Amino acid sequence: MARVLDRLNRGGRRRLAVATVAGVVAGAVAIPVAVSAVGSSLGSAAAATAPQISKPAASKTGPAPTVQVNQVGYQTKSPKQGTFVTKSESPLAWTLKDADGKEVASGKTKPAGVDKSSGENVHTFDFSKVAESGKGYTVTVGGKTSEPFSIGDNTYSQLRTDSLAYFYHNRSGINIDANLVGKNYARPAGHIDGAASSDEKVPCQPKVCDYTLNVSKGWYDAGDYGKYVVNGGISVAQLMSSYERTLHTKGADSKALGDGRLLVPEHGNHVPDILDEARWEMDFLLSMQVPKGEKLAGMAHHKVHDSTWSGLPLRADKSTNKRELHAPSTAATLNLAATAAQAARLFEPYDKEFSAKALKAARAAFDAAKANPKMFADPGDATGGGAYSDYDVKDEFYWAASELFITTGDKEYRQEVEKSSLHNDSEALFPDGGISWQSVGGLGALDLATVPNKLGDAGVKAAQKAVTEAADRYAAAAGKGGYGVPYAPGGSYAWGSNGQILNNMVVLATAHDITGKNKYRDAVTSGMDYILGRNPMGMSYVTGYGARYAHNQHHRFWAHEKDAKLPQPAPGAVAGGPNSSVDDPVAQTRLKGCAPAKCYVDDIESWSTNEITINWNAPLAWVASYLDDQA
């Protein structure tokens, strides 16, 4: 099963405004990228462009193409590059043709030698000068032709919508509406209605506590129906940050995330749809806090999931396994503190009562974590769900203190930020393998660098320097090898490598927002090219995007490979991607001796290479939104 082993590799291993929001201190330093204020116009549901449900063609099968391109397409003004797998060591002629077969451009490939990640000899080609919009473009090299792709300004508009719809699809405790997602993806609410499998009155594991909690909201984590505070934390933070970016960055479009624009059921409530989605998870995270009057009041339970592993396929409302709360942990508590502090400032214009509740919970959680700094999740607690164990919580303390400081301006939180050994240490905050659920200090650094706060000019510039230094490393990695991927994991690809690559792209995009330097934007673009087809597998890792895409990811409801009556994953779901450690039996059988970037198989049972999760889709949504803003 997907989590018999703790997913230690999922996120990569750790190396060692002047404010108008209530509770935010006036006089905060305005970050140089700031151009708009909280409460900027979002448009109404009546006036907004209605979101569309994607209906992609079936994925192609068969051998992968040797001419590898972004199978979705390229933005008009962006770099346009591809890769050709060949034994030739000499430049080769390439030709770009439009949908009618007319030659549009031509040139010579650039030999790049053997790409270490794939073990293959590759050439690259560049057609960036082509800026004519159109569909059905192809590139031919050495008698081999790429999959078709588009050039245009709306390359990532639908991906922004679909990648965010992933979270609605995976909500717990609510009917998933066919009017929003289509009849194939509609389903009754899961884990409610009072059964043993209900999340409305969940008991603790034996000897953990003697109370029950209603934890029925939130997002199902991945291929199973567990809900984890540590993984929910980084995921909801990135959704909120995607919106918060639009409040302070020139050219960012808050209306595209506004009321009536995304696939959520809360249309017409005058709250940005992306915050409605984040609210569903925040309500869950808040509900996981140990109640006042209990021994560990203020701490957060680490997770809730089935007492035993469930099989697949299985629709959420059909689950009968007993649900249990697991012991509180310091890491979970600090995830709650960080996200609740961020939510407090973002929701204040729309729901002052919730904003105040969130800030109160954040303060209580931070205090509780300081009083219990070494309550670690048991790595052996992996029956029925993943352990998500973490023995180093310096980064969680840094992230939580950063968010509380940004929101409140309080001196105590500033002191916590500045005394941390992580403060402004670029390599510690942003490891080469990327930020992850186990390495979240970078989330605090990104917000200190871009969200108005009281660090002062010198403090903000230092935070920005930490971001740009990391972005320089990621951009340099993108310039090496034959695929333009901003990832340098030291010879191996981690569990969830696609999520790590996307997290590196978030850092690059933020550096571009801060500096305006195109080298960072270009590295984001090449990273998305990799995700969408310019990779050694010659396929898009995002369901429904490209001619050849992942469509058998590990998921209990999206399990068409197991039951033809069930759907494939919804469009916009990103697969975990190559994993050098090949931790599941299917991967171990089919991927013996695989090169790092080819340790992937699109099989529903390959949970170590082909699962889908909230913490991988969150950076995909962030990056898709950023790139759509660049058009």
From TrEMBL:
Active-site residues are: D602, E611
Glycoside hydrolase family domain residues? 156-623
Alphabetized UniProt keyword annotations:
Carbohydrate metabolism, Cellulose degradation, Glycosidase, Hydrolase, Polysaccharide degradation
Q: Name one GO molecular function term.
A: cellulase activity
Enzymatic reactions: Endohydrolysis of (1->4)-beta-D-glucosidic linkages in cellulose, lichenin and cereal beta-D-glucans
- Domain Cellulase Ig-like, by residue range, is 64-146
**Gene3D superfamilies recorded:** 1.50.10.10, Immunoglobulins
What is this enzyme's EC? 3.2.1.4
Q: Which domain of life is it from?
A: Bacteria
Q: Which GO terms describe its biological process?
A: cellulose catabolic process
Q: Which PANTHER family match?
A: ENDO-1,4-BETA-GLUCANASE
What is the protein name stated in its UniProt record? Endoglucanase
| Organism of origin | Streptomyces antnestii
